[in-house]
Amino acid sequence: MQKQQVKLLDRVRHKICLKHYSIRTEQAYVSWIKRYIHFHNMKHPKDMGEMEIEEFLTDLAARGKVSASTQNQAFNAVLFLYRQVLKIDLFGEINALRAKTPARLPTVLTADETFAVIDAMSGTHQLLGSGHDNILINQQKTSKNACFQGLYPHFRPQNRPDRVLKALEADTHRRIL
Hints:
By secondary structure, this protein is mainly α. It is 56% helix and 5% strand.
């Protein structure tokens, strides 16, 4: 009796499962591999190589206008297909047009500038501006930094400005009452 050949995408899923990748990675990789095959008019990947990978990735960047991280994910999915599933090493260099990574300039304020901004706010907005209210209040039951004395939570300082902690404590008392 002849052994039935397992479909390519089932082999991909099986290999991902063996490597204990997450279900989301499996879904993403299978989707990218399908797109790669459809892009090349249902041609089997074993009959393709570096040139076809380059065309696919370049198309994603140029026509698809995907982000750099999306293009990298597609590239990793196709590489996984070739290296792990088909056991084909790609010896050539993939010189695809790369999607542009956005220039990220961090917005950083000094401690004094931060307090100046928070001091310019009032009431609940001041708490929202500090960014600590939701984090601390939503996690106060499990946080090591919060303890309950009677009905009211008291926050233990942990590298946090006392002004913010006092404002949080006061606002929490108002919310409970």
